[in-house]
Predict the structure.
Amino acid sequence: MVKLGNKKASITLVCLMIFALLLAACSSNGNAGNGNNGAGEANGAVNGAESGTGNGAAAEKDKKESVTITAAMQQHSAVDAIKEMLPEFEQQTGIKVQFDILPQEELHSKTELALASNSDQYDVVMMDMMFTTQYAKAGWVSPLEDLISANEATLQSDDFMEGFLSAFQTDGHTYGLPFYGESTMLMYNKEMFEQAGIANPPTTIDELIAAAKELTKDGKYGIAMRGARGEGMNIYVWAGFYNAFGGKWLVDGKPVMNSPEAIKATEVYADLIKNYAPPGGANFSWDQVQLAVQQGTVAMAIDATNFAARLESPENSKVVGKIGYAPVPSGPAGSSPSVYTAGLVVPKGSEHQEAAFEFISWATSKEIQLKTAIEGLRADATRKSVWEDQSYRDKYNYEGWTDVTVQAMEEANADYRPRIKEWKRMGDRLGIAVSEVLASSDAKEALDSAQKDIEQFFK
Protein backbone atom coordinates (compact mmCIF):
# COMPACT_ATOMS: atom_id res chain seq x y z
CA MET A 1 0.00 0.00 0.00
CA VAL A 2 1.33 3.40 -1.05
CA LYS A 3 1.38 6.07 1.53
CA LEU A 4 0.17 9.48 0.49
CA GLY A 5 2.84 11.11 2.42
CA ASN A 6 5.53 9.51 0.28
CA LYS A 7 6.30 12.14 -2.37
CA LYS A 8 7.97 9.71 -4.75
CA ALA A 9 5.10 7.26 -4.53
CA SER A 10 2.57 10.02 -5.10
CA ILE A 11 4.32 11.13 -8.27
CA THR A 12 4.40 7.54 -9.48
CA LEU A 13 0.67 7.14 -8.80
CA VAL A 14 -0.19 10.31 -10.71
CA CYS A 15 1.91 9.18 -13.72
CA LEU A 16 0.17 5.81 -13.73
CA MET A 17 -3.26 7.47 -13.64
CA ILE A 18 -2.37 9.81 -16.53
CA PHE A 19 -1.06 6.89 -18.59
CA ALA A 20 -4.24 4.93 -17.96
CA LEU A 21 -6.42 7.85 -19.05
CA LEU A 22 -4.40 8.35 -22.25
CA LEU A 23 -4.64 4.66 -23.07
CA ALA A 24 -8.41 4.71 -22.62
CA ALA A 25 -8.77 7.79 -24.80
CA CYS A 26 -6.73 6.24 -27.62
CA SER A 27 -8.76 3.05 -27.39
CA SER A 28 -12.14 4.80 -27.59
CA ASN A 29 -11.18 7.17 -30.47
CA GLY A 30 -9.28 4.71 -32.66
CA ASN A 31 -12.26 3.65 -34.83
CA ALA A 32 -13.42 7.22 -35.35
CA GLY A 33 -10.01 8.22 -36.59
CA ASN A 34 -9.96 5.35 -39.09
CA GLY A 35 -13.50 6.19 -40.10
CA ASN A 36 -12.55 9.78 -40.91
CA ASN A 37 -9.63 8.62 -43.03
CA GLY A 38 -11.90 6.19 -44.85
CA ALA A 39 -14.46 8.91 -45.51
CA GLY A 40 -11.83 11.20 -46.97
CA GLU A 41 -10.64 8.45 -49.31
CA ALA A 42 -14.06 6.93 -50.12
CA ASN A 43 -17.49 8.25 -49.30
CA GLY A 44 -17.60 8.64 -45.53
CA ALA A 45 -20.80 6.60 -45.25
CA VAL A 46 -19.82 4.80 -42.04
CA ASN A 47 -18.74 7.87 -40.10
CA GLY A 48 -21.73 9.86 -41.37
CA ALA A 49 -24.10 7.13 -40.23
CA GLU A 50 -22.45 6.89 -36.77
CA SER A 51 -22.43 10.64 -36.14
CA GLY A 52 -25.78 11.42 -37.73
CA THR A 53 -24.37 14.80 -38.67
CA GLY A 54 -23.83 14.27 -42.41
CA ASN A 55 -20.03 14.14 -42.14
CA GLY A 56 -20.06 11.56 -44.95
CA ALA A 57 -21.78 13.99 -47.32
CA ALA A 58 -19.30 16.68 -46.35
CA ALA A 59 -16.45 14.30 -47.07
CA GLU A 60 -17.97 13.50 -50.47
CA LYS A 61 -18.15 17.22 -51.27
CA ASP A 62 -14.52 17.60 -50.18
CA LYS A 63 -13.66 14.76 -52.53
CA LYS A 64 -15.47 16.40 -55.47
CA GLU A 65 -13.87 19.74 -54.73
CA SER A 66 -10.50 18.10 -55.31
CA VAL A 67 -11.56 16.96 -58.83
CA THR A 68 -10.81 19.14 -61.84
CA ILE A 69 -11.92 17.90 -65.25
CA THR A 70 -10.78 19.24 -68.63
CA ALA A 71 -13.16 19.47 -71.57
CA ALA A 72 -12.08 19.93 -75.20
CA MET A 73 -14.77 22.08 -76.79
CA GLN A 74 -15.41 23.59 -80.24
CA GLN A 75 -15.62 27.34 -80.77
CA HIS A 76 -19.38 27.79 -80.82
CA SER A 77 -22.03 30.09 -79.39
CA ALA A 78 -23.47 27.22 -77.35
CA VAL A 79 -20.05 26.63 -75.78
CA ASP A 80 -19.69 30.32 -74.96
CA ALA A 81 -23.05 30.24 -73.19
CA ILE A 82 -22.14 27.15 -71.16
CA LYS A 83 -18.77 28.58 -70.19
CA GLU A 84 -20.49 31.53 -68.52
CA MET A 85 -22.46 29.08 -66.36
CA LEU A 86 -19.57 26.91 -65.16
CA PRO A 87 -19.39 28.60 -61.72
CA GLU A 88 -22.99 27.48 -61.17
CA PHE A 89 -22.08 23.87 -61.94
CA GLU A 90 -18.99 24.01 -59.76
CA GLN A 91 -21.00 25.39 -56.85
CA GLN A 92 -23.62 22.66 -57.21
CA THR A 93 -21.22 19.74 -57.50
CA GLY A 94 -17.78 20.81 -56.28
CA ILE A 95 -16.38 19.62 -59.64
CA LYS A 96 -14.17 22.19 -61.33
CA VAL A 97 -14.20 22.38 -65.13
CA GLN A 98 -11.53 23.75 -67.44
CA PHE A 99 -12.34 24.36 -71.12
CA ASP A 100 -9.88 23.97 -73.97
CA ILE A 101 -11.78 25.77 -76.76
CA LEU A 102 -10.56 25.14 -80.31
CA PRO A 103 -11.71 25.71 -83.92
CA GLN A 104 -13.54 22.71 -85.37
CA GLU A 105 -10.71 21.21 -87.46
CA GLU A 106 -8.08 21.81 -84.76
CA LEU A 107 -10.39 20.27 -82.16
CA HIS A 108 -10.69 17.11 -84.24
CA SER A 109 -6.95 16.72 -84.91
CA LYS A 110 -5.86 17.50 -81.34
CA THR A 111 -8.40 15.30 -79.59
CA GLU A 112 -7.85 12.39 -81.97
CA LEU A 113 -4.17 12.34 -81.02
CA ALA A 114 -5.09 12.32 -77.33
CA LEU A 115 -7.71 9.61 -77.77
CA ALA A 116 -5.47 7.37 -79.87
CA SER A 117 -2.75 7.45 -77.20
CA ASN A 118 -5.24 6.73 -74.39
CA SER A 119 -4.13 9.98 -72.78
CA ASP A 120 -5.76 11.39 -69.66
CA GLN A 121 -5.41 14.90 -71.11
CA TYR A 122 -9.17 15.26 -71.53
CA ASP A 123 -12.09 14.03 -69.45
CA VAL A 124 -14.73 15.29 -71.89
CA VAL A 125 -14.49 15.75 -75.65
CA MET A 126 -16.98 17.51 -77.88
CA MET A 127 -17.21 15.04 -80.77
CA ASP A 128 -18.63 15.28 -84.27
CA MET A 129 -21.30 12.58 -84.67
CA MET A 130 -19.56 11.35 -87.83
CA PHE A 131 -16.77 9.82 -85.74
CA THR A 132 -19.01 7.72 -83.46
CA THR A 133 -18.38 4.40 -85.17
CA GLN A 134 -14.68 5.00 -85.75
CA TYR A 135 -13.93 6.04 -82.17
CA ALA A 136 -16.14 3.33 -80.67
CA LYS A 137 -14.53 0.52 -82.68
CA ALA A 138 -11.08 1.84 -81.79
CA GLY A 139 -11.99 1.72 -78.08
CA TRP A 140 -11.18 5.40 -77.61
CA VAL A 141 -14.41 6.49 -75.90
CA SER A 142 -16.36 5.00 -73.02
CA PRO A 143 -19.83 3.49 -73.43
CA LEU A 144 -22.25 5.43 -71.25
CA GLU A 145 -25.39 3.28 -71.10
CA ASP A 146 -24.74 2.07 -67.53
CA LEU A 147 -24.34 5.64 -66.27
CA ILE A 148 -27.35 6.73 -68.32
CA SER A 149 -29.46 3.93 -66.84
CA ALA A 150 -28.34 4.69 -63.29
CA ASN A 151 -29.28 8.37 -63.72
CA GLU A 152 -32.31 7.99 -65.99
CA ALA A 153 -34.74 9.49 -63.49
CA THR A 154 -33.06 12.87 -63.76
CA LEU A 155 -31.40 12.50 -67.17
CA GLN A 156 -34.57 11.53 -69.11
CA SER A 157 -32.68 10.38 -72.19
CA ASP A 158 -35.89 9.79 -74.17
CA ASP A 159 -36.35 13.59 -74.19
CA PHE A 160 -33.50 13.96 -76.70
CA MET A 161 -34.43 14.16 -80.38
CA GLU A 162 -34.24 10.57 -81.55
CA GLY A 163 -32.03 11.34 -84.54
CA PHE A 164 -29.55 13.20 -82.35
CA LEU A 165 -29.25 10.52 -79.67
CA SER A 166 -29.04 7.68 -82.18
CA ALA A 167 -26.16 9.50 -83.88
CA PHE A 168 -24.01 8.53 -80.86
CA GLN A 169 -25.15 4.92 -80.75
CA THR A 170 -23.56 1.94 -82.46
CA ASP A 171 -23.43 -1.81 -81.85
CA GLY A 172 -25.92 -1.52 -79.00
CA HIS A 173 -23.94 1.06 -77.02
CA THR A 174 -24.38 4.80 -76.42
CA TYR A 175 -21.17 6.81 -76.47
CA GLY A 176 -22.32 10.41 -76.06
CA LEU A 177 -25.13 12.83 -75.32
CA PRO A 178 -26.09 15.44 -77.95
CA PHE A 179 -24.96 18.93 -76.99
CA TYR A 180 -26.19 20.90 -79.99
CA GLY A 181 -27.83 19.88 -83.22
CA GLU A 182 -29.29 21.00 -86.50
CA SER A 183 -31.01 19.75 -89.62
CA THR A 184 -31.53 21.28 -93.05
CA MET A 185 -34.50 23.18 -94.46
CA LEU A 186 -35.52 25.39 -97.35
CA MET A 187 -35.42 29.10 -96.48
CA TYR A 188 -37.15 31.42 -98.95
CA ASN A 189 -37.71 35.16 -99.32
CA LYS A 190 -41.49 35.63 -99.21
CA GLU A 191 -41.27 39.13 -100.67
CA MET A 192 -39.31 37.93 -103.70
CA PHE A 193 -41.71 35.01 -104.16
CA GLU A 194 -44.68 37.37 -104.12
CA GLN A 195 -43.07 39.71 -106.65
CA ALA A 196 -42.44 36.75 -108.96
CA GLY A 197 -46.00 35.51 -108.57
CA ILE A 198 -44.98 32.24 -106.88
CA ALA A 199 -47.62 31.37 -104.31
CA ASN A 200 -45.91 28.58 -102.34
CA PRO A 201 -42.43 27.25 -101.64
CA PRO A 202 -41.35 24.30 -103.81
CA THR A 203 -42.07 20.85 -102.41
CA THR A 204 -40.20 18.82 -105.04
CA ILE A 205 -36.78 19.16 -106.64
CA ASP A 206 -38.42 19.77 -110.02
CA GLU A 207 -40.38 22.67 -108.49
CA LEU A 208 -37.17 23.92 -106.86
CA ILE A 209 -35.43 24.08 -110.25
CA ALA A 210 -38.39 25.89 -111.82
CA ALA A 211 -38.58 28.42 -108.97
CA ALA A 212 -34.82 29.07 -109.05
CA LYS A 213 -35.02 29.79 -112.76
CA GLU A 214 -38.00 32.14 -112.34
CA LEU A 215 -36.38 34.04 -109.47
CA THR A 216 -33.01 34.65 -111.13
CA LYS A 217 -33.48 38.09 -112.68
CA ASP A 218 -32.98 41.82 -112.11
CA GLY A 219 -29.68 41.34 -110.28
CA LYS A 220 -31.16 38.78 -107.88
CA TYR A 221 -30.51 35.08 -107.77
CA GLY A 222 -32.73 32.06 -107.30
CA ILE A 223 -30.75 29.99 -104.83
CA ALA A 224 -27.56 29.68 -102.79
CA MET A 225 -26.05 26.41 -101.55
CA ARG A 226 -22.60 25.30 -100.44
CA GLY A 227 -20.11 24.88 -103.25
CA ALA A 228 -16.85 24.85 -101.28
CA ARG A 229 -15.38 21.34 -101.25
CA GLY A 230 -15.35 19.14 -98.17
CA GLU A 231 -17.34 16.43 -96.38
CA GLY A 232 -18.77 19.10 -94.10
CA MET A 233 -19.19 21.73 -96.82
CA ASN A 234 -20.69 20.93 -100.24
CA ILE A 235 -21.23 17.27 -99.36
CA TYR A 236 -23.28 18.18 -96.29
CA VAL A 237 -26.04 19.68 -98.47
CA TRP A 238 -25.36 17.61 -101.60
CA ALA A 239 -26.03 14.47 -99.53
CA GLY A 240 -29.68 15.51 -99.22
CA PHE A 241 -29.99 15.49 -103.04
CA TYR A 242 -28.07 12.21 -103.24
CA ASN A 243 -30.46 10.53 -100.79
CA ALA A 244 -33.52 12.12 -102.37
CA PHE A 245 -32.59 10.63 -105.75
CA GLY A 246 -32.19 7.19 -104.16
CA GLY A 247 -28.41 6.98 -103.92
CA LYS A 248 -26.92 4.23 -101.73
CA TRP A 249 -23.72 4.90 -99.84
CA LEU A 250 -22.77 1.24 -99.49
CA VAL A 251 -23.99 -1.93 -101.20
CA ASP A 252 -22.91 -5.14 -99.46
CA GLY A 253 -20.37 -3.07 -97.55
CA LYS A 254 -18.82 -1.60 -100.69
CA PRO A 255 -19.10 2.04 -101.85
CA VAL A 256 -21.10 2.75 -105.01
CA MET A 257 -20.62 6.44 -105.67
CA ASN A 258 -21.00 6.50 -109.46
CA SER A 259 -24.50 5.06 -109.77
CA PRO A 260 -27.08 6.67 -112.10
CA GLU A 261 -28.73 8.17 -109.00
CA ALA A 262 -25.45 9.70 -107.85
CA ILE A 263 -24.79 11.15 -111.30
CA LYS A 264 -28.27 12.68 -111.53
CA ALA A 265 -28.09 14.18 -108.02
CA THR A 266 -24.70 15.73 -108.80
CA GLU A 267 -25.86 17.15 -112.11
CA VAL A 268 -28.91 18.78 -110.53
CA TYR A 269 -26.94 20.16 -107.57
CA ALA A 270 -24.23 21.61 -109.82
CA ASP A 271 -26.69 23.06 -112.35
CA LEU A 272 -28.61 24.89 -109.62
CA ILE A 273 -25.44 26.56 -108.35
CA LYS A 274 -23.89 27.24 -111.76
CA ASN A 275 -27.06 28.71 -113.30
CA TYR A 276 -29.01 30.32 -110.45
CA ALA A 277 -26.58 31.18 -107.62
CA PRO A 278 -24.66 34.46 -107.18
CA PRO A 279 -21.23 34.84 -108.81
CA GLY A 280 -18.69 32.79 -106.87
CA GLY A 281 -21.41 30.46 -105.60
CA ALA A 282 -19.34 27.44 -106.55
CA ASN A 283 -16.99 28.37 -103.69
CA PHE A 284 -19.58 29.37 -101.09
CA SER A 285 -19.22 27.99 -97.58
CA TRP A 286 -22.17 28.01 -95.17
CA ASP A 287 -21.47 31.52 -93.90
CA GLN A 288 -21.46 32.96 -97.41
CA VAL A 289 -24.79 31.26 -98.13
CA GLN A 290 -26.16 32.78 -94.94
CA LEU A 291 -24.84 36.24 -95.80
CA ALA A 292 -26.41 36.12 -99.28
CA VAL A 293 -29.80 35.42 -97.72
CA GLN A 294 -29.30 38.10 -95.05
CA GLN A 295 -28.50 40.68 -97.72
CA GLY A 296 -31.63 39.86 -99.73
CA THR A 297 -29.69 38.97 -102.88
CA VAL A 298 -30.98 35.38 -103.17
CA ALA A 299 -34.52 34.05 -103.01
CA MET A 300 -33.83 30.57 -101.61
CA ALA A 301 -31.24 28.58 -99.72
CA ILE A 302 -31.01 25.02 -98.48
CA ASP A 303 -28.83 24.89 -95.39
CA ALA A 304 -28.81 24.57 -91.62
CA THR A 305 -31.94 25.15 -89.58
CA ASN A 306 -30.02 27.29 -87.11
CA PHE A 307 -29.57 30.03 -89.75
CA ALA A 308 -32.95 31.39 -88.66
CA ALA A 309 -31.76 33.16 -85.51
CA ARG A 310 -29.26 35.16 -87.57
CA LEU A 311 -31.58 35.76 -90.51
CA GLU A 312 -34.08 37.26 -88.07
CA SER A 313 -31.54 39.42 -86.23
CA PRO A 314 -32.05 43.15 -86.97
CA GLU A 315 -28.38 43.80 -86.20
CA ASN A 316 -27.15 41.59 -89.03
CA SER A 317 -29.97 41.03 -91.50
CA LYS A 318 -31.95 43.02 -94.05
CA VAL A 319 -34.65 40.37 -94.38
CA VAL A 320 -36.10 40.23 -90.86
CA GLY A 321 -39.69 39.02 -91.08
CA LYS A 322 -39.39 38.31 -94.82
CA ILE A 323 -38.16 34.71 -94.66
CA GLY A 324 -40.35 31.64 -94.85
CA TYR A 325 -39.25 28.18 -93.72
CA ALA A 326 -40.19 24.91 -95.41
CA PRO A 327 -39.04 21.26 -95.57
CA VAL A 328 -36.32 20.37 -98.04
CA PRO A 329 -37.92 19.43 -101.38
CA SER A 330 -38.48 15.78 -102.24
CA GLY A 331 -36.87 13.76 -105.00
CA PRO A 332 -37.86 10.38 -106.44
CA ALA A 333 -36.90 8.68 -103.14
CA GLY A 334 -38.50 11.31 -100.90
CA SER A 335 -37.24 14.18 -98.77
CA SER A 336 -33.91 13.89 -96.95
CA PRO A 337 -33.27 16.50 -94.25
CA SER A 338 -29.83 16.31 -92.72
CA VAL A 339 -28.86 15.48 -89.21
CA TYR A 340 -25.83 17.00 -87.60
CA THR A 341 -25.03 17.03 -83.93
CA ALA A 342 -21.96 17.47 -81.78
CA GLY A 343 -22.03 15.45 -78.60
CA LEU A 344 -20.10 15.20 -75.38
CA VAL A 345 -18.18 11.96 -74.87
CA VAL A 346 -15.85 10.58 -72.20
CA PRO A 347 -12.42 9.35 -73.34
CA LYS A 348 -11.39 5.90 -72.14
CA GLY A 349 -8.23 7.46 -70.71
CA SER A 350 -10.07 9.83 -68.37
CA GLU A 351 -9.41 9.22 -64.69
CA HIS A 352 -12.66 11.00 -63.72
CA GLN A 353 -15.35 9.10 -65.61
CA GLU A 354 -18.24 9.77 -63.21
CA ALA A 355 -17.39 13.45 -62.74
CA ALA A 356 -17.17 13.81 -66.52
CA PHE A 357 -20.58 12.20 -66.95
CA GLU A 358 -22.04 14.48 -64.30
CA PHE A 359 -20.85 17.48 -66.31
CA ILE A 360 -22.19 16.03 -69.56
CA SER A 361 -25.60 15.42 -67.97
CA TRP A 362 -25.73 18.98 -66.66
CA ALA A 363 -24.59 20.60 -69.92
CA THR A 364 -27.21 18.74 -71.97
CA SER A 365 -30.06 19.05 -69.46
CA LYS A 366 -33.33 20.78 -70.33
CA GLU A 367 -32.72 23.42 -67.66
CA ILE A 368 -29.34 24.48 -69.05
CA GLN A 369 -30.30 24.23 -72.72
CA LEU A 370 -33.40 26.34 -72.12
CA LYS A 371 -31.57 28.91 -70.03
CA THR A 372 -28.80 29.40 -72.59
CA ALA A 373 -31.38 29.60 -75.40
CA ILE A 374 -33.46 32.25 -73.67
CA GLU A 375 -30.52 34.33 -72.45
CA GLY A 376 -28.57 33.98 -75.72
CA LEU A 377 -29.12 32.78 -79.29
CA ARG A 378 -29.39 28.99 -79.44
CA ALA A 379 -31.51 27.65 -82.25
CA ASP A 380 -29.83 24.28 -81.81
CA ALA A 381 -31.37 22.65 -78.72
CA THR A 382 -31.34 18.85 -78.71
CA ARG A 383 -34.24 18.15 -76.32
CA LYS A 384 -37.87 17.92 -77.37
CA SER A 385 -39.02 19.55 -74.14
CA VAL A 386 -37.01 22.68 -74.92
CA TRP A 387 -38.61 23.02 -78.35
CA GLU A 388 -42.03 22.52 -76.75
CA ASP A 389 -41.43 25.05 -73.98
CA GLN A 390 -43.56 28.16 -74.47
CA SER A 391 -40.78 30.57 -73.53
CA TYR A 392 -38.58 29.04 -76.24
CA ARG A 393 -41.35 29.18 -78.84
CA ASP A 394 -42.13 32.78 -77.87
CA LYS A 395 -38.55 33.87 -78.40
CA TYR A 396 -37.96 31.94 -81.62
CA ASN A 397 -41.37 32.69 -83.08
CA TYR A 398 -40.28 32.92 -86.71
CA GLU A 399 -43.11 32.04 -89.04
CA GLY A 400 -43.31 28.25 -89.30
CA TRP A 401 -39.69 27.76 -88.30
CA THR A 402 -40.12 25.83 -85.05
CA ASP A 403 -42.53 23.25 -86.46
CA VAL A 404 -40.54 22.72 -89.68
CA THR A 405 -37.30 22.33 -87.72
CA VAL A 406 -38.74 19.81 -85.28
CA GLN A 407 -40.21 17.85 -88.19
CA ALA A 408 -36.84 17.79 -89.94
CA MET A 409 -35.00 16.72 -86.81
CA GLU A 410 -37.47 13.93 -86.13
CA GLU A 411 -37.39 12.65 -89.73
CA ALA A 412 -33.63 12.86 -90.20
CA ASN A 413 -31.71 9.60 -90.53
CA ALA A 414 -28.62 9.25 -88.32
CA ASP A 415 -26.80 7.94 -91.41
CA TYR A 416 -27.80 10.86 -93.65
CA ARG A 417 -24.05 10.66 -94.29
CA PRO A 418 -22.67 7.20 -93.37
CA ARG A 419 -21.08 7.03 -89.93
CA ILE A 420 -18.21 4.77 -90.95
CA LYS A 421 -14.53 5.02 -90.19
CA GLU A 422 -13.76 5.66 -93.85
CA TRP A 423 -16.15 8.62 -94.04
CA LYS A 424 -13.72 11.52 -93.59
CA ARG A 425 -11.58 10.55 -96.58
CA MET A 426 -14.58 9.33 -98.55
CA GLY A 427 -16.56 12.53 -97.99
CA ASP A 428 -13.64 14.80 -98.79
CA ARG A 429 -12.99 12.90 -102.04
CA LEU A 430 -16.64 13.28 -103.01
CA GLY A 431 -16.33 16.99 -102.22
CA ILE A 432 -13.58 17.22 -104.83
CA ALA A 433 -15.77 15.45 -107.39
CA VAL A 434 -18.73 17.79 -106.81
CA SER A 435 -16.38 20.78 -107.00
CA GLU A 436 -15.05 19.50 -110.32
CA VAL A 437 -18.57 19.27 -111.71
CA LEU A 438 -19.24 22.81 -110.52
CA ALA A 439 -16.20 23.78 -112.61
CA SER A 440 -17.92 22.13 -115.63
CA SER A 441 -16.43 18.62 -115.53
CA ASP A 442 -18.70 15.79 -116.62
CA ALA A 443 -20.52 14.33 -113.61
CA LYS A 444 -20.05 10.70 -114.64
CA GLU A 445 -16.32 11.13 -115.26
CA ALA A 446 -15.82 12.97 -111.95
CA LEU A 447 -17.70 10.32 -109.97
CA ASP A 448 -16.03 7.41 -111.81
CA SER A 449 -12.67 8.84 -110.77
CA ALA A 450 -13.86 9.38 -107.20
CA GLN A 451 -15.21 5.81 -107.08
CA LYS A 452 -11.80 4.36 -107.94
CA ASP A 453 -10.10 6.36 -105.20
CA ILE A 454 -12.77 5.64 -102.59
CA GLU A 455 -12.58 1.90 -103.23
CA GLN A 456 -8.98 2.03 -102.00
CA PHE A 457 -10.13 3.35 -98.63
CA PHE A 458 -12.05 0.11 -98.02
CA LYS A 459 -9.16 -2.26 -98.66
About this structure: Residues 184-339+417-457 form a domain with the D-Maltodextrin-Binding Protein; domain 2 fold (CATH 3.40.190.10). Residues 115 and 140 are 5 Å apart (CA to CA).
